[in-house]
Amino acid sequence: xxxxxxxxxxxxxxxxxxxxxxxxxxxxxxxxxxxxxxxxxxxxxxxxxxxxxxxxxxxxxxxxxxxxxxxxxxxxxxxxxxxxxxxxxxxxxxxxxxxxxxxxxxxxxxxxxxxxxxxxxxxxxxxxxxxxxxxxxxxxxxxxxxxxxxxxxxxxxxxxxxxxxxxxxxxxxxxxxxxxxxxxxxxxxxxxxxxxxxxxxxxxxxxxxxxxxxxxxxxxxxxxxxxxxxxxxxxxxxxxxxxxxxxxxxxxxxxxxxxxxxxxxxxxxxxxxxxxxxxxxxxxxxxxxxxxxxxxxxxxxxxxxxxxxxxxxxxxxxxxxxxxxxxxxxxxxxxxxxxxxxxxxxxxxxxxxxxxxxxxxxxxxxxxxxxxxxxxxxxxxxxxxxxxxxxxxxxxxxxxxxxxxxxxxxxxxxxxxxxxxxxxxxxxxxxxxxxxxxxx
Length: 440
Ligand code: UGA
Prior knowledge:
Blueprint: E1 2-6, H1 12-21, E2 25-29, H2 33-40, H3 51-60, E3 64-66, H4 70-75, E4 79-82, H5 97-106, E5 115-118, H6 126-137, E6 146-149, H7 159-164, E7 169-172, H8 176-185, H9 187-191, E8 196-199, H10 201-232, H11 236-244, H12 265-279, H13 284-308, E9 315-319, H14 334-344, E10 348-352, H15 357-363, E11 368-369, H16 373-377, E12 382-385, H17 397-403, E13 408-411, H18 418-423, E14 427-429
Parallel strand pairs: 1-2, 1-4, 2-3, 4-5, 5-6, 7-8, 9-10, 9-12, 10-11, 12-13, 13-14
Helix pairs in contact: 1-3, 5-6, 10-12, 10-13, 12-13, 13-14
Bound molecules: uridine-5'-diphosphate-glucuronic acid.
Uridine-5'-diphosphate-glucuronic acid binds at residues 121, 152-156, 212, 215, 219, 253-255, 257, 259-262, 264-265, 323-324.
């Protein structure tokens, strides 16, 4: 099928490259011309494992190209995907300006029978709006314009893997033509056994917000539990293992730590809360989930303070700056929230990240960024693990101890075994685990 993907970010680019792999003819367009010119040269605008290879393969096989001439691309498209950003407004509502703008942008060029697929995460009711905008712009096509909701569940850092092995493909549509088109698009995945769930449009839209909010809730549950475990002398990881053995609960997303961040959970949780409230339901639980998430940063600051007493004149090494491993995305990263708090209290912070150093520096110029873990640790009074990159598992512990001014570790992701840390002579603070003095 001839497909155009509007928006070449974390959602649009993996989507375009995956569809090209399924033998569709895909053109990626974006209002950012520079980004498109870069993609034409093979420059991927962000770090996502495996994506550069996939894009290169699609381009080499002639299935994937990028164009600055959106009009020409859209004219011949059978399917147009909208994958533009839906950031949060000050109020917490989803800002749908880019969605509307892209709809108005494509409308004049749509041809008869086209299906517009909305992949961006949006509040329930947005497809209805989109349909109105498209139909008003193109009265000649009117009833023939079909809007389909196909929320994505890709995780940053695993987007390529998730694209080829999705745990579900969700399609919300109003007509058999919409469902049929989506079945054709995803045929290789469906043939391979991927679960296809077909619903009405509002259900599909809402299910995406409901899923992200529930995952955030699980993490916040683990973080609240961590606080109680610390007080009770229990180990939150072991508690999570016990809970997770029950298939009704599941082990995933019960890892306590510095909390959730990134581009999706924070804005989606707020947008879902705002949507519920505008519809007439006060979903207070969602605000509590957010409050517990903020508390996770407070708890980490408290541990650093407990370890170092006054934070003025102290240098703190932050390991990991991205909001999670395997991405260079620092948007609403808990690591940067922690850095801001420590700096506000008078500490100097030095961070290291395998991929996100440059992004972190441009987001937070007063954060020093080191070129390696050991450069970050050199002379620091304390090391805080903020993001669980695999690289940190193999840190040379004797060398780290030698470099640090004080051998103190605040493990914000429970990466290390407290007993091993103690054996190496570190003062170890985990999350939801007894502190070093009580371990053993
Ligand atoms: C999330 C969802 O997982 C995807 O299904 C969804 O498609 C995506 O949002 C989206 O809406 O676009 P992502 O933002 O990439 O994906 O991140 P997650 O892997 O869900 O992690 C979110 C945050 O929770 C990270 O900061 C992570 O460190 C934190 N987390 C996760 C924990 O603190 N503990 C856990 O046990 C799991």
